[in-house]
Write a structure and sequence with these properties.
By secondary structure, the chain is α/β, with parallel strands linked by helices. It is built from five helices and five strands. The chain has a single domain, classed as 3-Layer(aba) Sandwich (Pyruvate Kinase, Chain: A, domain 1). Helix 2 links the parallel strand 1 and strand 2. The protein is elongated, with a radius of gyration of 28 Å.
C-alpha cells in the first residue's frame, strides 16, 4: 500500500469520525428531552396503574361482568407488541427486543397457541416480515418523538382485538430506560387485567415505592368499582403503551449515543494505526530512495 493510499484511508476514517461525533451529540440532546418527558409522565402513569390495581382488587369476582374485564375461558391466541425504532445504528437496541419477543412467541407456539405480532418502528416491522411472522398491526414514523395519539391508536387496536376475542392475552416488550449506558428488556402483560403485570406485585415503578408496606387506605367507590374500571382500563392500556414508547425512545437515544461514542473511539484507534502505517511506508520510501542514490553514486565511481 502506497503512502497516498494510506492518506486516503486516514481521510475517509476521519470523515466517518466526524459523522459519528455529530450523531453522538444529536442523540445526547434528544436524550435529555426524552428524559424530561419520562419524568413528567411517570407520576401520572404510576397513579393510573395504582388506581387500576386498587379498583380491580375492590371489584374482586365482579371483574368478568364486562368484556374488557372478562378473562377468556381458554388462551388460544396471544398478541405480542414489540416496541422498536425506525432507525438503527444503536447497538443491540432493536435486536434484543426482537429476540426476546420472538423467543416468547416461539414458546407459546410450542404450547400449541397461536401468536400474532404488533410492532412499532420500521426495524421491528421489517424484521418480522423478513422472518415470515404474522403481523396484525404495524406502526412507524414516530419513534423519535412519540405522541399520546400514537399510543391511543395502538391501545385501541389491542383492546379491540381482546374484546372481540381475536386474542386472549396481550403482552408488550420494550427497552426500559435505566441510564444512558443501561437499557433493560421489559416484558409486561397488559390484558387480561387479572394477569396484568400491575397485579403481580412485580411493578418496578418508583412511584409505588413510597406506599407503606401492608397498609391500604379504605376507599369507597361511587359508582361501583366495575363501572370505574370500565372507564379506567382503556386509559390504563393507553398509558402503559405510551410509557413504553417514551421509555423506548429514551433508551434508543441512550443506546445510539453510546454506540456512536464507541464508534468515534474506534475510529480514533484506526487513525492511530493508519498513521503508524503511513510513517512506516514513508520511511520505507525514503530508505529506498537513499539506496537508489547510493547505488547510482557507486556506479559512477
Amino acid at each position: 500500500m502506497s503512502q497516498r493510499d494510506v492518506k486516503a484511508r486516514i481521510g475517509s476514517v476521519k470523515n466517518i469520525q466526524k459523522i459519528t461525533r455529530a450523531m453522538e451529540m444529536v442523540a445526547a440532546a434528544r436524550l435529555r428531552r426524552a428524559e424530561q418527558r419520562i419524568a413528567a409522565l411517570r407520576p401520572y402513569a404510576g397513579a393510573i396503574r395504582r388506581m387500576t390495581r386498587q379498583a380491580s382488587e375492590a371489584a374482586g369476582g365482579e371483574l368478568g361482568q364486562l368484556p374488557i374485564l372478562a378473562e377468556h375461558d381458554s388462551e388460544q391466541t396471544v398478541a405480542i407488541l414489540l416496541v422498536t425504532a425506525d432507525r438503527g445504528l444503536a447497538g443491540a437496541f432493536n435486536s434484543q427486543i426482537l429476540r426476546a419477543g420472538i423467543r416468547a412467541g416461539t414458546g407459546y407456539e410450542k404450547d400449541g397457541k397461536a401468536v400474532v405480532y404488533y410492532a412499532t418502528g420500521r426495524r421491528g416491522v421489517s424484521s418480522l416480515i423478513f422472518r415470515g411472522k404474522e403481523t396484525a398491526g404495524t406502526y412507524t414514523g414516530f419513534t423519535d418523538r412519540p405522541a399520546y395519539a400514537n399510543a391511543r391508536e395502538i391501545a385501541e387496536a389491542l383492546v379491540s382485538a381482546y374484546v372481540d376475542a381475536k386474542v386472549d392475552r396481550v403482552e408488550i416488550f420494550y427497552n426500559g430506560y435505566v441510564s444512558p449506558l443501561v437499557q433493560e428488556v421489559r416484558r409486561e402483560t397488559l390484558l387480561p387485567l387479572q394477569q396484568a403485570t400491575i397485579l403481580e406485585g412485580s411493578e418496578s415503578d418508583s412511584e409505588d415505592a413510597d406506599e407503606p408496606s401492608g397498609h391500604h387506605t379504605l376507599v369507597e367507590y361511587e359508582p361501583d368499582p366495575v363501572d370505574i374500571l370500565r372507564r379506567l382500563v382503556p386509559d390504563y392500556v393507553e398509558i402503559s403503551v405510551f410509557r413504553a414508547l417514551l421509555e423506548s425512545t429514551a433508551s434508543e437515544h441512550g443506546a445510539r449515543m453510546t454506540a456512536m461514542r464507541n464508534a468515534s473511539e474506534n475510529a480514533g484507534e484506526v487513525i492511530t494505526d493508519l498513521t503508524l502505517e503511513m510513517n512506516r511506508v514513508r520511511q520505507a520510501e525514503i530508505t529506498q530512495e537513499i539506496m537508489e542514490v547510493v547505488a547510482g553514486a557507486e556506479a559512477l565511481v
